[in-house]
Amino acid sequence: MSRFLVVLIVIVLVLVGGIVFLSTRSTEKEPVRMEKVVPLENLTK
Fold this sequence. Notes:
Number of helices: 1
Mean pLDDT: 87
Structural class: mainly alpha
Radius of gyration: 26 Å
């Protein structure tokens, strides 16, 4: 095999491995409850 073909195969394997690794990672986050003070000034008009 030529050196170019070996390098090409290694690059393809690294890319495919990276895609598989990133697709199996859990990216879900728990929802964070945020409490915010709501002024009632606009309701009195």
